[in-house]
Amino acid sequence: MNPLKKQAPIGLEVRGLHVSYPGRAVVKDAGFTVPAGRVASIVGPNGCGKSTLLRAVARLHQPESGTVHADGADIWSLGRREAARRVALLPQSPRAPEAVTVAGLVRYGRHPHQGLLRQWSREDENAVREALEATGTTGLAGERLDRLSGGQRQRCWLAMVLAQQTPVVLLDEPTSALDLGHVVEVLELVREVARAGRTVVMVQHDLAAAARYSDVLVAMKDGSVLAQGNPRTTVTASLVGELYGVEADVLEAPVDASPVVVARARAKVAEAGPAGQGHVRGTRS
C-alpha cells in the first residue's frame, strides 16, 4: 500500500461490542468499519444478532462493552439528542400515527433538531423539501401514508430518515416484503444516499442484493462477525456454507461481476478433511 495514498475517512467504526438479553449473549465481540460515504450490509442466518447489533449502534440497546464511533464521535458518550443528529435508524416494520400525511411523516425526522430555544425554521423546511425530492416523493407529500403502496411507503420512510440529516444512516431490512421492482428501487436509492456522502449500514437477508449494492459486507453467525470486506472477495462458497449450512456455487453476475450465490443442497455435516475437519465444497471458495 502506498503510504502517501489518502485514506477515506471512517464513517462508522464498531469495536468489541458485546450485547446481551437476560440469560444470553446475543452479540459477541462484534466489530466492523465502514468508510464515509459507503454502503455496508450485515448478513447472516435468522437469529444471529444482526438487528440487535444495529440497535446497539443506534443507541437503542446499551452494550455491556465495546465502542461505537459515528462520524468521529463516541455515540454512547453523547446526549440522546446529539446522538440522534449523528445516527438515524429506520427499524423493521415502522409504525406511523394514524392518517399521517407523507409531509407530516417526513417532518418527524427533524425532531432531534428541535428544542426549547429552537422551533421549526426555514432550515427544517428545506431539509424536508430536500428529503422529499431525493426520494421522489414530493408529489406524495399531501397523501396519507396508509393509502400508498409498499414501495411508496418505504421511500417515504427513507425520506423521514434523510430529513434527520445524519452522517450515518441505519436501515433494518429496508426491502423486506417488497416485490423485486421495489427492491431495486429502494436499493438504488440507498446507493444515491451514499453517493451524496452519507454512510449507510443495512441489515439484509438477500445475500445477492447485499453483495451487489454494498461496498462492505459484514457476515455474522451466532452473534459474532465471521468475515467482513469487499463483497467480491468476501462472498465465497465456504463462507456461504458456514453461514447457512448449504453447498453453493458462487458465480459472477455478467453485468457487474458481483457475486451470485446458487445453493445446491444442505451441506454434508462431516465430509472428512485435514485433521478430521469438515469442509463445504463449491466454486470460488
In short:
The protein is of the alpha/beta class and 285 residues long. 28% of the residues lie in helices and 27% in strands.
How would you describe this protein?
This protein has 285 residues and is α/β, with parallel strands linked by helices. It folds into three domains: 8-86 and 166-235, Rossmann fold (3-Layer(aba) Sandwich); 96-165, no CATH class; 247-285, no CATH class. It has nine helices and twelve strands. The protein has helices spanning 50-57, 80-84, 102-107, 122-134, 150-163, 180-195, 207-213, 231-234, 237-244, and strands spanning 10-21, 24-35, 39-43, 65-70, 73-74, 87-90, 168-172, 199-203, 216-221, 224-229, 246-252, 259-266. The protein has a six-stranded mixed sheet, with helices on both faces. The protein has a four-stranded antiparallel sheet with strand order 2-1-4-5, covered by helices on one side. Strand 7 (168-172), helix 6 (180-195) and strand 8 (199-203) form a beta-alpha-beta unit. Helix 4 runs antiparallel to helix 5 (150-163) and helix 5 (150-163) packs parallel to helix 6 (180-195). It is globular, with a radius of gyration of 20 Å. The two termini are 25 Å apart. The relative contact order is 0.15. Mean pLDDT is 89; it is low at 1-6 and 270-283.
